[in-house]
């Protein structure tokens, strides 16, 4: 669709992949869902394909994304979740209405209604956020060690020692910077 829009970074956790559609938050931010079409592309990539995506859908999505980011950051810092963020996440979850379905080959699919709507898709994302923020799923929320990133991620490593939101982006930047300072 929009060819020159920045590509997506897709991790294994839906909710933090969603907050990761805005990267380098503490540096020069990169918006990866700048248009309704790109939000539709992202949802489709996450198995949440919708029929249509409006500017209002995009606004609701970015509200939810930022609420998840704020709540995840608070949690990683050991602070209570801000009330506004909790309200936005809970409202998106309650509005959702998607149904989980089991496929015959043993996978989970989300049924987003007919037609499949962004509201239903965001409900799935909000539910995923509630799972990681409430500790229902194993792992702890942590913040990326990159000073320009500081993205929240779910650390499921055995000793909870993961430092980067993604090894092949932030981890590598850091490694390159270290090598450069050693040789430069
Ligand atoms: Zn990072």
Key features?
two-stranded antiparallel ribbon, Jann2411-like fold, single chain, about 45% helix, about 180 residues, binds zinc ion
Mean pLDDT: 93
- Using the alpha-carbon principal axes, give the shape: globular
Task: Output the number of helix runs.
Answer: 6
CATH architecture: Orthogonal Bundle
- Domain tally: 1
Calculate Rg over CA atoms.
17 Å
Count of β-strands:
6
What bound compounds does this protein have? Answer: zinc ion
Strands across the major sheet, in which order? 1-2
Poorly predicted ranges: none
**What percent of the residues sit in helical stretches (DSSP H or I)?**
40-55%
CATH T-level fold name: Jann2411-like fold
What is the percentage of strand-forming residues? 5-15%
- The run of helices and strands is HEEHHHEEHEEH
Which structural class is indicated by helix and strand composition?
Answer: mainly alpha
């Amino acid at each position: 669709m929009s060819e020159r829009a920045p590509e997506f970074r897709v991790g294994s956790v839906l909710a933090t992949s969603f907050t990761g559609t805005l990267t380098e938050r503490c540096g020069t931010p990169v918006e990866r869902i700048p248009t309704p079409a790109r939000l539709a592309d992202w949802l489709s990539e996450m198995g949440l394909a919708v029929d249509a995506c409006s500017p209002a859908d995009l606004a609701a999505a970015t509200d939810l994304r930022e609420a998840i980011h704020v709540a995840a950051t608070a949690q990683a810092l050991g602070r209570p979740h801000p009330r506004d963020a909790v309200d936005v996440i809970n409202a998106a979850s309650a509005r959702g209405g998607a149904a989980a379905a089991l496929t015959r080959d043993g996978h989970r699919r989300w049924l987003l209604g007919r037609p499949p709507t962004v509201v239903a898709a965001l409900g799935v994302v909000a539910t995923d956020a509630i799972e990681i923020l409430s500790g229902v799923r194993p792992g702890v929320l942590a913040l990326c060690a990159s000073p320009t990133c500081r993205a929240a991620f779910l650390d499921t490593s055995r000793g909870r020692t993961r430092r980067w939101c993604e090894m092949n982006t932030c981890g590598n930047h850091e490694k390159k910077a270290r090598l450069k300072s050693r040789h430069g």
